[in-house]
Amino acid sequence: MPTFSPDSVLASLSLEDKVRLLCGKDAWHLHGLPEHNVPEVTLTDGPHGVRLTDEHTLNDNTHPATVFPVEAAMAATWNPELLHDAAAAIGRECQALNVGVLLGPGLNGKRSPLGGRNFEYFSEDPQLTGIMATAYVQGLQSEGVGGCIKHFVGNEQETRRFLINAEIDERTLQEIYLAPFAKAIREAQPWTVMGAYNSLNGEFCCQNSDVLQRLLREELGFDGLVMSDWSAVQDKVLAHANGLDLEMPGPALRDDELLQAVRNGDVAESVLDERVIRVLRLIKRIEEEQRPVTVDWEAHHELAVRVATEAIVLLKHEQSLLPLSTQSTTALIGEFATEPRFQGGGSSHMKPKGMTLPLSALEQRGTVRYAQGYKDTGTTDELIAEAVTVAREADQVVLLTGTTDSMESEGFDRANMELAPDHVRLIRAVAKANPKLVVVMQSGSAMDTRAIEDAAPVILQAWLPGQGGGEALARVLCGEVSPSGKLSETLPLRLEHNPTYETFPGNKTDVTYHEGLFVGYRYYDTKKLPVAYPFGHGLSYTTFDLNDLRIEQNGNDAPARLQVTVTNTGQVAGAETVQVYIHDEVSTLRRPEQELKGLAKVHLEPGGSETVTVTLDERAFACYVTHLGRWAVESGRFEIRVGTSSRDIRLREWISVESETEVRILPSLEDPVEEWLADSRTSPVMRSVLDDLGFDDQHPMAAIVRGFPIPQLVKFIPWMGHDEATAQRAFQRLAEQRSAVG
Ligand code: BGC
After folding, report:
1. pLDDT tens-digit readout, 324-350
2. What are the angstrom distances between the C-alpha of 96 and each of 297, 318, 491, 625?
3. What CATH number has the domain bearing residue 182?
4. 208 and 339 in a common domain
5. Which of 260, 484, 630, 718 is deepest in the core (most CB within 10 A)?
6. Which domain range does residue 612 map to?
7. Domain membership flag for residue 665
8. Which of 229, 525, 584, 679 is catalytic?
């Protein structure tokens, strides 16, 4: 096959050709240049499978492909190896359908449980998101298909998503919202990044040089291609001038504007060339990585089932109702049993290659009586009466509930966290008829369970589980597999407890991330608020012991290597996830109570035991120090907390970490005495000045003087009976020490 060299093609292109290459040909393709042997390539959504349309527009007429569980569910597996395999399978399907780049995964955060696309994002925790995103991109790209991590950055809501300006302070941006992108870029080198619709700190992301150049290129070291989200480009000239490589989708409407800007000299042709070479290199890479594949659809379906199975979180398990007895009659209630709720709405919406319905999967395993119970979000007295009869006559009941597309989708944020009132009515009526009730939640994001807690002794969160969801559910309910999913987001007791309650989704123009670092459990755990189900929580049919925490450090420098032994102490096989949090004893910069830094999932037979290793690198202990413009560790003690949820810490040990960096801002000659006393570089001189003046800790004015800025202190000295010269000398000593250390 004839091929091309990006450099020589670039050298021979006219200005018009260059500009043409910087925008898609249509919704899903890039321009080819047949005269230069540059092929036309395809990019398509993402993220939980390949969503390829036959046509060149944004329609829903897609090729069937394996629908994996949504990202929220993928993250709930806490199993990066499994996710790697799933993404590799998606990659093979991309190859079979001639797709060169898959538009995913999404790495945005979950500020609020109401975020309309929370189902498409991994977690409220940046480390978990980063780990899962890295595994996903590595898996996908291992099959020669490019990943596209999106939406860069600050796209945590759907309300006014094309217009809103996210105001995020630098430290929060770095520690919470950039961190997953940074990890994925560092460890998985995604081929592409997608710029977000929204503005960040005053400028649209796709034309924001701070976002595209300083953060993405200079700090995160990204060297692939940056494309816009679909129609996110507001000012085409500014976008390309400030760092955007590719505008999507096509056809282009504003090429003339860019041509004119280059001809006028407003944009240098060399800048254009930097963008064009990245487009050509991407096309070249896609071409080089193309390979013949035969897709084993059955194996991919089984993989989708495995991911869905490991994603199921057993939130609550009373009365030992599970596993279901397959000798007894089960009432299965809810339209989702036959019209499965398996994916979310919007650009990730796919046509499944196969599907196992919850009803048929359970019927294969025992006697099942089905009742519809509701239609979408509504029910009727007849539907409730039928469900009640079926429940009463059965030995045990499984009721499927959750969100519908009208409650949760791309394009809008959720109105609340509650179940549809008619679903609640149904659940309560069914529970009265038969209290042996297992409620299965099918949603892509956090639900408020208060309305059903007293009615449901068992609640499972099964997410939007993809095409294998029915089979996965049956395997877990019938005890073939013990549930091992863990919450990747906290289920707060009530929406009002969420730290963004007053500020989400902002006003007409701006949303300010006032809660800063304190998102999800970082907030609830710091505030010691009760939650419905904590971050990292998930029960099993068996029990596990965590023992023997050993921490090895190379001197007092990070990194630290941790080992923990996990033992399955129950009667059946199962899996447990060791979660490693750190707690900083004292920190100059305010930090959350604890932060997840590592994890390890282990599958064990009854009585089986395994020692897992988790490594904490230097970054694990660091904060982003805004005035230094970098991450830095501060010397001190950290408690290593090892547990099975953020609220179930089983093992703890203190370690010391040493660092040469001084994180404090050196006090100035305008700052108060107490800040001088708190800083090791200035406290000796301040203490000695105070002693000389007779202001020891016993002095009645000592507490007040600590609050004096230096000029006030100097003014005060003569009033204390010292002469003017003493005051001047004191000031002089402070000034000298300040310049000696500054
Ligand atoms: C979404 C992206 C998606 C793109 C293409 C946009 O509306 O925000 O996530 O990849 O459409 O469908």
Report:
1. 999 999 999 999 999 999 999 999 999
2. 11, 46, 39, 47
3. 3.20.20.300
4. no
5. 484
6. 544-657
7. no
8. 229
